[in-house]
Amino acid sequence: MAIVYQAIRRWFHPRELREVGETPDYRFSLANERTFLAWLRTGLALIAGGLAVAQFLPPMPISYLREGLAVALLLLGGTVAIRAVDHWARTERAIRLGQELPASRFPAVLALLVGLGAVLLVVAVLVQAARKT
């Protein structure tokens, strides 16, 4: 629990982060920030997709598929946003300490989840089309 508290504290107290190590070339910090903002945009897009699925997608042939997809997209978007700020803080700390940048499997996991979601949607659309004919 203490580790989680320390990680979250770093998100809201960047002064603590600035006291670690040496001030890096500003271009590295700005590149890290741009990556963070790109992840936030990804999270917002997933959240918007979840809301769009919930509001505009017609009922699917499988009970509660629409709602399940909407909830999955909303949760995934929130997870991406939280993961983004954690990765930003860990990367900034590594840059300031001259350490290797933290490795992350999250982009691969996210890509697999989005791909799996797309496959499930294709199956649902094909099932619905087959039922109409």
UniProtKB/TrEMBL annotation:
GO cellular component: plasma membrane
Domain DUF202: 27-94
Keyword Cell membrane: yes
Highest taxon of the lineage: Bacteria
Protein's organism: Plantactinospora soyae
Keyword Cell membrane: yes
Annotated protein name in UniProt: Membrane protein
Transmembrane segments: 36-57, 69-85, 106-130
Keyword terms: Cell membrane, Membrane, Transmembrane, Transmembrane helix
Topological category with respect to the lipid bilayer: Multi-pass membrane protein
Compartment annotation: Cell membrane
Main location: membrane
